[in-house]
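Task 17 of the worksheet. Students: predict the tertiary structure of the chain below and write it out as structure tokens. Keep your answer in the requested format; marks are given for formatting as well as content.
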Amino acid sequence: MKHHKQAAPLRQYPEVREYMTPAPHTIAPTSSLSRAIRAMRDNRIHHLPVVERDRVVGVLSQRDILIMESLPGVNPTEVRVDEAMVRDVFTAAPDTPVGEVVETMLERRLGSTVVSEGDRVLGVFTTTDALRALQDLLKQP
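Model answer:
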């Protein structure tokens, strides 16, 4: 009989709130792409949660904007956020273990997770934040 290696249980700490980038900034799906670009530049952020009637409906990343801008004839003042955003948003509660969030991001090949409590967006956990968590883990004796 073959013994299958038991998957190691995920550590319950740290929680995603410890590593997320606080993101009080959100944008409406009907906003123009140029408004989103300005908001991201002014706030020095790379991911912008898209919120409609207090619900997260998407996330817009710098990569999504670059893709849209590379299309011929695209005018950022005419293109709406919901035409460029990614609808496959993963949201997690602030007390979710980082390990669980990272696992889902890997499975679904996501660059970010929106951290929210109820309808309130608290922050965004990105691959960069995941690397900071890994760095801390590697520093431990």
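Marker's comment: The first strand starts at residue 21 and ends at 22. The radius of gyration is 17 Å.
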